[in-house]
């Protein structure tokens, strides 16, 4: 820490101002210092404290002799900065303040300073020094934030102790009084330093002091705590700081220099000095410490911002907040058991994490989707109270994990908050081996674990390109899970990914797809850049490896996400073009050999047939609502490979008429029901006209499900036109406008799927799941004048992937030109 503003003359100064002291006794401070640094007994904090005590005694003796010779009384020698904290690394600067009461003349004070500084320089020690009165020290601190921070660590060494004590008291009072203005300045300094030096927890050659998560940040957190406005999470903080200091000590001893940069060529020696296995173990330990400090800094600065915003409210306005509302923020629901409060996602008052093991993932997903940090208090409570998830995971847990991964950049801070309390490795035990694992390939920007999360972030922007976003995001999270294991990490990762996917509750077919994606996540880019694409064997080998068009589609997106998350050198337009060319060739070969993937239409169940007969007989809608544990025994498997969507089953049968799909979807949206999956088909059970049968899987957005009687009443009103659904939904959207989505979603994509059906035209919609989405799609199709023969809706995390089989009024597939126009119309309605 640089503090000098009024420096005295150093070596080479004005001749005659300094008389060299008598030679020290044999050995003395230099020999004692050398013995301490090379003695194996005291290490770490003990050695730093011992070195500080040794230096204290030496400097105290210097001041006693110098004060007598110069005739200056009313002076004190004060240690500031790291030395003030009693922590001296082998090559640390000595940060010293010569404090005087101003009674002596300037020449005598200068002579006293010379007698102090020159012996330090003569030993080759770095010195950061200043000479001031208490009033000058306080005035300089008001102008220079770094000086003010240094005074917070002021420690008396020798001389007039009352002078030092008075300055310390005044310095703390000044800091607390000025904190509302100075803390934002300190935060800006931390941000600027992070921009210049990067994040310690990811750098191959980190600066232990200046990088984000380093020792400077630890000092800043001490200053925030001294302001009494906020404090950092304490768990693990001191241990992390101590670990970085120990590493810096070893670095100083190995290099013999005052350096804070942990260079590659010195890491092995530093690791040996610390008794660690190798350089990777050193980096991993360093990254863990930096991660603890970074998380503490994030939490602390967020709290500082909240406190300062609250203090900025005028007293008269605060006075208007009377009674029980005073000082309490408004709670806005985010998900079951999760609310927004003061800019954070917190647990609702009624939340019971000990009874709700999925709450951890639900809270994380809700926070990330809303672009909010997850409250540290909530995370600690979840870590302490939440029970283990059953194996395999319930469908809701899997869905919430996918939703968290699909939230884009806001996934990262929420994931880090779970990491800070050990929740990630509790949920995914295989994560421990990749956590904080360095990647020595300079192409990589991140550690292995952060790279996996970043790949999921990148993949979230590509979900419109694939038919199964949930498989893409899961494979993105697991594609390098085999790193740190013996052998090829892709081969090891395939086995691990298969086990993890099974534990997450994916069915056998989906598990195979995820394992294939992990095994071959490097296949496309390596083949495209290293093989002759005109060689039939090249394309054939890739086709054999992926096995199907759906897997190829997912692998293409995963390849791009992986490269983008690696670093700027890993992806380019040239590489992207080569990979796209390879994918096109492989897709062509697969299309000639494989049956096109499509959805099967099962025979109606007995329950569905009964409802259809009742609707045809009465001429009105008939509903049946089944909680999950009361679903009919002959319940048909869910779409997309049998993956069980979250929610309960809702069956609706209604005589066929225009707009039924849009009307039914609108009624569900009004009742705050989220459609997780749906299937629409037409039956003619008694030969008197078609009946539409809608099989839905729905979940309540908040609270409990509505009664089937209320749903039917609103459906009747909507069908006869007495309930204006568009107006009611628009009113709902306006009410939610104040909570605008913080995560920018990829734009919707509506396409015509060629060759999927010979009897209908298939319109595919991939969009962000949102309130009333299915209602808007249904209205757009109705306005296009097409008939919806069947619809297959699935919600995968935060993504809706819907397929609508449409025909013209005569029941024939649409001509290509009209099909494209219908797709454009639906996309326009969604945009």
Explained architecture:
- Pfam families: ACT, GlnD_UR_UTase, HD, NTP_transf_2.
- One of its GO terms (molecular function) is [protein-PII] uridylyltransferase activity.
- It catalyses: [protein-PII]-L-tyrosine + UTP = [protein-PII]-uridylyl-L-tyrosine + diphosphate; [protein-PII]-uridylyl-L-tyrosine + H2O = [protein-PII]-L-tyrosine + UMP + H(+).
- This protein is of the alpha+beta class and 831 residues long.
- It is 52% helix and 12% strand.
- Helix 15 packs across helix 19.
- The two termini are 54 Å apart.
- The N terminus is likely disordered.
Please outline what is shown here.
One of its GO terms (molecular function) is [protein-PII] uridylyltransferase activity. The protein has 831 residues and is of the alpha+beta class.
- Tell me the number of helical segments per DSSP (H or I, 4 or more residues long): 32
How many beta-strand segments?
A: 15
**Helix content range of the residues, please?**
40-55%
Structural class, from secondary structure content? alpha+beta
Q: Roughly how many Å apart are the termini?
A: 54 Å
* Arithmetic mean pLDDT: 86
Categorize the overall geometry: elongated
Strand content: 5-15%
Largest sheet: 8 strands, antiparallel
Low-confidence segments: 1-26, 321-327, 594-601, 629-646
Rg calculated over all Cα atoms = 34 Å
* Strands side by side in the biggest sheet: 8-9-11-10-14-15-13-12
């Amino acid at each position: 820490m640089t503090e000098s503003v009024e420096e005295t003359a150093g070596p080479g100064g004005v001749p005659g101002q300094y008389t060299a002291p008598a030679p020290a006794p044999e050995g003395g401070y230099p020999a004692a210092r050398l013995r301490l640094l090379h003695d194996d007994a005291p290490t770490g904090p003990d050695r730093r404290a011992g070195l500080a005590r040794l230096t204290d005694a030496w400097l105290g003796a210097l001041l006693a002799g110098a004060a007598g010779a110069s005739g200056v009384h009313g002076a004190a020698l004060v240690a500031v900065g790291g030395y003030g904290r009693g922590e001296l690394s082998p090559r640390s600067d000595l940060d010293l303040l010569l404090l005087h009461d101003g009674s002596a003349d300037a020449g005598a004070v200068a002579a006293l300073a010379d007698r102090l500084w020159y012996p330090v320089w003569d030993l080759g020690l770095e010195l950061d020094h200043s000479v001031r009165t208490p009033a000058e020290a306080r005035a300089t601190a008001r102008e220079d934030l770094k000086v003010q921070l240094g005074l917070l660590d002021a420690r008396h060494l020798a001389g007039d102790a009352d002078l030092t004590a008075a300055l310390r008291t005044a310095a703390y009072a000044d800091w607390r009084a000025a904190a509302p203005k100075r803390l934002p300045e300190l935060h800006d300094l931390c941000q600027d330093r992070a921009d210049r030096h990067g994040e310690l927890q990811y750098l191959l050659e980190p600066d232990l002091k200046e990088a984000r998560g380093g020792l400077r940040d630890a000092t800043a957190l001490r200053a925030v705590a001294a302001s009494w406005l906020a404090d950092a999470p304490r768990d693990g903080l001191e241990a992390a700081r101590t670990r970085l200091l120990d590493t810096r000590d070893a670095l100083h001893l190995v290099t013999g220099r005052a350096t804070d940069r942990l260079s590659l060529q010195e890491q092995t020696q530093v690791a040996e000095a610390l008794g660690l296995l190798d350089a990777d173990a050193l980096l991993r330990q360093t990254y863990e410490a930096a991660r603890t400090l970074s998380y503490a800094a994030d939490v602390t600065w967020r709290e500082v911002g909240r406190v300062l915003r609250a203090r900025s409210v005028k007293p008269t306005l605060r006075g208007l907040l009377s009674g029980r509302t005073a000082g309490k923020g408004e709670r806005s629901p985010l998900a079951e058991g999760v609310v927004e409060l003061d800019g954070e996602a917190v647990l609702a008052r009624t939340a019971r994490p000990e009874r709700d093991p999925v709450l951890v993932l639900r809270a994380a997903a809700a926070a990330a989707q809303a672009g909010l940090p997850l409250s540290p208090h909530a995370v600690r409570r979840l870590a302490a109270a939440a029970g283990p998830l059953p194996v395999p995971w319930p469908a809701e847990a899997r869905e919430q994990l996918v939703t968290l991964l699909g939230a884009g950049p806001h996934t990262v801070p929420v994931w880090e908050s779970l990491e800070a309390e050990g929740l990630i490795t509790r949920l995914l035990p295989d994560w421990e081996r990749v956590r904080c694992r360095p990647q020595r390939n300079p192409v990589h920007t991140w550690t292995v674990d952060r790279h996996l999360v970043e790949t999921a972030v990148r993949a979230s922007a590509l979900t419109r390109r694939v038919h199964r976003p949930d498989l893409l995001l899961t494979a993105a999270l697991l594609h390098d899970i085999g790193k740190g294991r013996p052998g090829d990490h892709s081969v090891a990762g395939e086995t691990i990914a298969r086990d993890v996917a099974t534990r997450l509750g994916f069915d056998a077919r989906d598990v195979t797809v995820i394992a294939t994606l992990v095994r071959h996540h490097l296949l496309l880019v390596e083949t495209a850049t290293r093989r002759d694409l005109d060689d039939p064997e090249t394309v054939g080998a890739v086709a054999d490896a992926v096995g199907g068009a759906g897997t190829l589609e997912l692998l293409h997106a995963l390849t791009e996400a992986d490269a983008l998350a690696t670093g700027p050198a890993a992806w380019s337009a040239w590489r992207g073009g080569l990979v796209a060319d390879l994918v096109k060739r492989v897709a062509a070969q697969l299309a000639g050999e494989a049956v096109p993937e499509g959805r099967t239409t099962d025979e109606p169940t007995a329950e569905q047939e009964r409802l259809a007969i009742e609707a045809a007989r009465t001429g009105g809608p008939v509903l049946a609502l089944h909680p999950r544990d009361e679903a009919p025994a002959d319940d048909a498997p869910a779409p997309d490979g049998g993956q069980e969507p979250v929610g309960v089953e809702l069956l609706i049968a209604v005589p066929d008429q225009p707009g039924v799909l849009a009307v039914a979807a609108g009624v569900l949206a009004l009742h705050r029901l989220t459609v997780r999956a749906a299937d629409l088909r037409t039956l003619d059970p008694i030969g008197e006209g078609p009946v539409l049968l809608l099989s839905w899987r729905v979940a309540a957005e908040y609270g409990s499900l509505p009664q089937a009687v209320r749903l039917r009443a609103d459906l009747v009103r909507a069908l006869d036109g007495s309930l204006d659904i568009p107006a009611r939904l628009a009113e709902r959207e306006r009410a939610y406008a104040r909570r605008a989505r913080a995560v920018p979603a990829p734009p919707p994509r509506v396409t015509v799927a060629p060759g999927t059906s010979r009897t209908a035209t298939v319109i595919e919609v991939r969009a962000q799941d949102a309130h009333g989405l299915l209602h808007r799609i249904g209205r757009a199709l109705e306005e296009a004048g097409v008939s919806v023969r069947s619809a297959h809706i699935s919600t995968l995390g935060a993504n809706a992937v819907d397929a609508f089989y449409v025909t013209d009024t005569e029941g024939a597939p649409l001509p290509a030109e009209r099909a494209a126009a219908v797709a454009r119309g639906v996309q326009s309605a969604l945009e």
